[in-house]
Amino acid sequence: MHDLVPLVLRGLQLLFAIILLGMTGYLVSNTTGRYYGYHFSSPSQVAFMLFNAVWTLFPALPYLALGPRFLPSSFNNKVIHLTLDALTAIFWFAGFIALAAWYGDHDYCLGRACGVIVATCVFGAFEWLLFTATTVLNGIDFNRSRNSTSAVKTAPETSTV
Questions:
Q1: What pLDDT was estimated at residue 123?
Q2: Is the confidence at residue 99, as pLDDT, over 60?
Q3: CB-side exposure of 57: number of CA atoms within 13 Å?
Q4: Measured between alpha carbons, how far is 30 from 111 in angstroms, rounded to an integer?
Q5: What's residue 112's pLDDT?
Q6: What is the pTM of this model?
Q7: CA-angle at 137, arms to 132 and 138, nearest 5°
Q8: Mean pLDDT, to the nearest integer, of 13-36?
């Protein structure tokens, strides 16, 4: 049961990252183009959410989910796991907050993309919660392993005469 929870959380992170990649790709394509000769590009908040999805799918999740099982122990440092989880959680937090703030500042809507923006914010918030949960689990595991190695120290042998 203890090993099942992180695996389920990683699976949900993967699923949400794929969904968010599709939604942010749609938003980028819908908010980029030409209008009466003026070129406009996607807002940086949308581009950052696209970066978050790509970051999660390619460097972060493969290392976090597959690294402990398939990489040698020299590449499996618990500090790196904890740092990568925390960094990804910070990315998702900054991304969904920035997108929500950008969307809330506008009185107009971009057509059908309005619902996708709201859904992207909601899925981004769930992705942040999932990465926060795995960061906490990795932190607890790191703390336990650090305490167990320091508690195992044995007393020096004494000799009797």
A1: 98
A2: yes
A3: 14
A4: 9
A5: 78
A6: 0.87
A7: 95
A8: 92
Q: Is the dihedral of CA 50, 56, 62, 67 positive or negative?
A: positive
What is the identity of the amino acid at 78?
Answer: K
Give the closest residue to 64 by CA, choosing from 17, 20, 19, 22: 17
Q: Give the three-state DSSP class for 110.
A: coil
Kindly state the percentage of the chain with pLDDT values over 90: 64
Using alpha carbons, select from 46, 47, 56, 52 the residue that is nearest to residue 100: 46
**Number of other residues whose CB lies within 10 A of the CB of residue 3:** 6
Q: Of 78, 81, 46, 75, nearest to 60 (Cα)?
A: 81
Q: pLDDT band at 96, cuts 50/70/90?
A: very high
| Residue 106 φ then ψ, to 5° | -105, 135
Paired tokens of 133: 């949960």
Q: How many residues does the chain have?
A: 161
